Amino acid sequence: MSNLEKFFNRCTQIVDEELDKLIPPAATEPARLYEAVRWSLFAGGKRFRPALVLAVGTAFGAGENKLVRFASAIEMIHTYSLIHDDLPAMDDDRLRRGRATCHIKFDEATAILAGDILQTLAFQAIADDQDLSEKVRVKLISELANSAAKMVAGQQLDLDGEGKKISLEDLEKIHHNKTGAMISAAARSGAIIAGANESELNSVTNYASKLGLLFQITDDLLDITQSTEVLGKTAGKDERAEKATYPSIYGIEETRELAEKVHAEAVEELNDLEKPVEILREIAGFILRRKS
Amino acid sequence: MSNLEKFFNRCTQIVDEELDKLIPPAATEPARLYEAVRWSLFAGGKRFRPALVLAVGTAFGAGENKLVRFASAIEMIHTYSLIHDDLPAMDDDRLRRGRATCHIKFDEATAILAGDILQTLAFQAIADDQDLSEKVRVKLISELANSAAKMVAGQQLDLDGEGKKISLEDLEKIHHNKTGAMISAAARSGAIIAGANESELNSVTNYASKLGLLFQITDDLLDITQSTEVLGKTAGKDERAEKATYPSIYGIEETRELAEKVHAEAVEELNDLEKPVEILREIAGFILRRKS
User: Is the Cβ of A245 closer than 8 Å to some Cβ of chain B?
Assistant: First the structure.
């Protein structure tokens, strides 16, 4: 097992343990609500955003105990957004993380409420984190909320653009908001928790911005090159929804070259940091080469 | 104009001004999203929860500047819950605050996203409130999140109970969660901001608990005794949805007597407080006698 695999496994383990403590047991009334929350939250997600919190935070010297709560909270926000994005009124999807989407397994009302309460519990988890000072908690809530608002705006832009011919600039704006902002929040928050200085935070921000772009480019590629089975979510749906994507604008080969270029830029941003950032380089490589 | 009317008008004025600053202008991209948020937020709501924050906070000696941000945030949470509760998959309502519900005026996807971002912006508004210490901000976010989670659980219980014969105990559990928790958070937060001591906070909690119950009892009464036009939302829908209500269990006359009794208990809780709580008495009277 590679170092990176070990790292991801460790992240998944501690984040899942923390999430299990933060979410009421499935038998809690109303049981249907918490079952639905747990159905979507414990569905074998990659925990990429939490891993980024932990990778950056650890590189800057923070202990896991100071990072795991926020890492779990950002996964709760991410999962709430997946539940709502999959609803019939939005992307209308039946499969997510290899299993039925929340509204298919339960019903639409329950899925809406499961998403709603996940967002609430995420902010509460940070507010109640006794391992962080109140000053840091407030900063993290503001950081996360700022990105979560961008994520929602990005989803609206995405829906508004469906079936329309949109420019590359518009496409980048959608991604920057919809996925980039939360990836940026993950990386930046790790650094904030560890007490990084302004210049360091700046490098982390630039790294995360490139990483978010790389994530989206490879996401677009996977949507057309991989099967539904491998992805654990419906493949080929960008094309069917007539969504603008990098391959639809550049073609597959040129998009692959773009991914290489953005990967190199992300790694470049790490060079000025006098910290043990090897794991951050490996994460960028992993995103470049990911198969699902 | 009575003192209470003047007080409510003042609350609406300062809260609406604050909300206008907290929500991006309607022309901000994605314009459809912020138009939808503003459509539901500036629809002439009674601003009851903000008024309660301001009434309790002022009685305990806090300045308006320390109260108005939280008062606005709790209205944002309340409005997000109305937008989502009105969705076709939930209560499926077309009218709210005297105008078309968000998903009717815009569309379902936009309404889901408008509710989502309102919740996000509410927590961000508190986290960024420079007029409060970080310690108080964290406490308020935890208090509000705790109540917002109960509100969602209450809505789930309410949906689960539709068309079933439920006990008075179950009915009270639904209301305690769905509306009581947020009313309690409003009153308690006003006291927390003002730095009330434990014993005072206890009295405020008990007052708010009775006030929340009174609010729900009169809400049930209005649903069957008032017209849709007066209420600004669809009247008579509890009966059509076969929802358990106080009048359906006790009948109208006995429910009115219950309202009087709960009102007296709410006011009783104020007697131990050596503070200028006249406005809190008047608010309880207003809820008892409200016509919409």
Answer: no
Given a contact cutoff of 8 angstroms between Cβ atoms, the answer to whether A209 and A180 are in contact is yes
Q: Count of A–B CB contacts within 8 Å?
A: 130
Strand, coil or helix: what is A117?
Answer: helix
Query: Measured between CA atoms, how close is B90 to chain A, in angstroms?
Result: 5
Do A215 and A96 form a contact (C-beta atoms < 8 A)?
A: no
pLDDT along chain B (292 residues), means of 10: 94 98 95 97 93 98 98 98 97 92 98 98 98 98 98 96 86 93 98 97 97 94 85 76 83 95 97 94 96 84
B chain contacts of residue A156, beta-carbon cutoff 8 Å: 30, 32-33, 109-110, 113
- Please state, in angstroms and rounded to a whole number, the distance separating the CA atoms of residues A217 and A169: 14
- Residue A179 · residue A158 · CB < 8 Å: no
ipTM attached to this prediction: 0.96
What's the one-letter identity of residue B203?
Answer: S
Q: Looking at the complex, does the CB of residue B157 fall below 8 Å from at least one CB of chain A?
A: yes
The helix/strand/coil state of A99 is strand
Residues in chain A closer than 8 A to B79 (CB atoms): none
Residue type, A166: I
Chain B residues with beta carbon closer than 8 angstroms to that of A137:
134, 138
Q: What is the pLDDT of residues A63-74, one digit of tens each?
A: 999 999 999 999
B137 contacts on A by Cβ (under 8 Å): 134, 138
From the number of C-beta atoms within 10 Å of its C-beta (0-12, 13-18, 19+), residue A113 rates as buried
Q: Which amino acid is residue B50, in one-letter code?
A: P
- Convert the pLDDT of each residue in A22-74 to its tens digit: 999 989 999 999 999 999 999 988 899 999 999 999 999 999 999 999 999 99
Class of domain B3-289 as given by CATH? mainly alpha
Cα A218 from Cα A262, distance rounded (Å): 11
For domain A3-154+165-289, the CATH class is mainly alpha
Q: Whole-prediction pTM value?
A: 0.96
Could you tell me where the beta strands, DSSP code E, fall in chain A?
A: 95-96, 99-100
A94-101 contacts at long range (C-beta below 8 A, 24 or more positions apart): A94/A234, A95/A228, A95/A232, A95/A233, A95/A234, A96/A40, A96/A43, A96/A232, A96/A233, A97/A40, A97/A43, A97/A44, A97/A45, A97/A232, A97/A233, A98/A43, A98/A44, A98/A232, A98/A233, A99/A39, A99/A43, A99/A232, A101/A40
Domain boundaries, chain B: 3-289
Interface contact B205, partner A, CB < 8 A: no
Is A104 in CB contact (< 8 Å) with chain B? no
